[in-house]
Amino acid sequence: MTVVVVGAGMAGLRTCEALRQQGYAEPIVLIGAEKHPPYTRPPLSKEVLRGEADVSKAILRTTEGLAELRVDVRLGRSAAGLDVDGRRVQLDDGSDVSFDALVIATGATPRRLPGSAFEDAHVLRGIDDCLDLRTKLVEGARVSIVGAGFIGLEVAASARALGCAVTVIDVLPEPLARVLPIDVGRVVRKLHEDNGVVFQLGAAVDTETKLDADVVVVGIGAVPETSCLDGSGLTIEDGVVCDSSLRAAPGIWAVGDVARWATGDSTLRVEHWTNATEQPHHVARDIVTGEASAFETVPYFWSDQYDAKLQSLGRVTSTDEMQVVWGSLDEPRWVAFVRSGDQLGAVVGMRAPGRVMKMRGLLAAKSSYDEALASLA
Ligand SMILES: Cc1cc2nc3c(=O)[nH]c(=O)nc-3n(C[C@H](O)[C@H](O)[C@H](O)COP(=O)(O)OP(=O)(O)OC[C@H]3O[C@@H](n4cnc5c(N)ncnc54)[C@H](O)[C@@H]3O)c2cc1C
């Protein structure tokens, strides 16, 4: 039996490791489009971008470490096609790799913007993007960041730390308004304004846009990387569509940013680091035991900006109602519950990591909103 893993990022590497941890001793082939060995991305918008940590700190396993795992790793090599019935992955050099089990872990690709203002714009996804941007973030540089999501805001904080003049532009009325309640966005905007960032909110950019900047960064989200699956017959709808056990087809799974799986009466795709570590363990167990079970999780992410750690557990839509349950939004530290109908939908907090993480059980138990409030008494 051979397991082929396409994508040598966080989720791809963790799949190989989990297979070995769970006793799988047969061949594993790991195919990675980038020339770098698997690495973790969060430091690329934080300490590595600021030059405080060497890029080597982000590497999760060197090629020697991969050899210890007994993984046949093909770096700098992309999957170009998939033959589901023939159980083969076609590579960009024209060769084929046969599989008995396939794990798709191709992550996501940053969205870009058309127009002359964005011709030389930076995006931030990989090591090469980070090193390129790092050379431009010099003291006094005027940096315009389009997109007040996590990547844009973390780049803004890092650029301010490096002495750049930073403007953040977004079409929405507050930062993070797509992913968190508007009140959180207000707090985060103030944090950045107190650190000297200028916002242009409610401001759409288009192909005619002119930006008075030395450096332009576009952080407007990412799309699941599924181009190698075109024509494969797998269902692709903003991600690789999987059942509740992360199976996309018999013997084929998807994990990490690219996976959209069935949960309850909807589907979910999560672009967070923790998800890219949890799903591989679930899939490895399924491959090793042959027993499918539903993947259950409480989605979690964190973001570090200046001295503040912002965390969110659970699922939030921007319109959900939020109630502060510890501290106050006018103070540096707080925790809030987010209501989703009668249920506790999410817990969001700033500079309160212990308190936020303690609430995970409430979400895992699918507590009602009232039960969750009562548990604090
Ligand atoms: C700058 C940055 C900062 C982040 N910070 C945080 C944070 O603070 N907190 C948090 O929770 N999350 C954070 N994230 C999100 C987190 O890093 C991702 O959720 C995680 O990297 C997803 O892992 P993945 O393995 O699914 O995808 P990726 O890490 O994108 O790995 C996919 C790999 O597959 C490769 N690939 C794609 N197509 C092919 C192909 N056809 N053939 C072969 N290989 C292919 C890609 O080149 C890539 O190396 C951050 C992301 C970025 C970019």
Set down the secondary structure blueprint.
Blueprint: E1 3-6, H1 10-21, E2 28-32, H2 63-68, E3 71-75, E4 79-83, E5 88-91, E6 96-98, E7 101-104, E8 108-110, H3 127-136, E9 142-146, H4 150-161, E10 165-170, H5 182-194, E11 198-201, E12 215-218, E13 222-224, E14 240-242, E15 247-249, E16 252-254, E17 259-263, E18 266-268, H6 273-289, E19 300-305, E20 308-314, E21 321-327, E22 334-340, E23 343-350, H7 353-358, H8 360-364, H9 369-375
Parallel strand pairs: 1-2, 1-7, 2-3, 7-16, 9-10, 9-12, 10-11, 14-17
Antiparallel strand pairs: 4-5, 5-6, 8-13, 15-16, 17-18, 19-20, 20-23, 21-22, 22-23
Helix pairs in contact: 1-6
Residues 6-12, 31-34, 41-42, 44-45, 78-79, 105-108, 124-125, 151, 225, 228, 256-257, 271-274, 276, 301-303 line the site of flavin-adenine dinucleotide.
Q: N- to C-terminal separation? A: 54 Å
Shape assignment: globular
Please state the CA-atom Rg, rounded to the nearest Å. Answer: 21 Å
- At CATH level 2, the architecture of the largest domain is 3-Layer(bba) Sandwich
Number of DSSP E strands: 23
Instruction: Bin the strand percentage.
Output: 25-35%
- What percentage of residues falls in helices of 4 or more residues? 10-25%
Question: What name does CATH use for the topology of the largest domain?
Answer: FAD/NAD(P)-binding domain
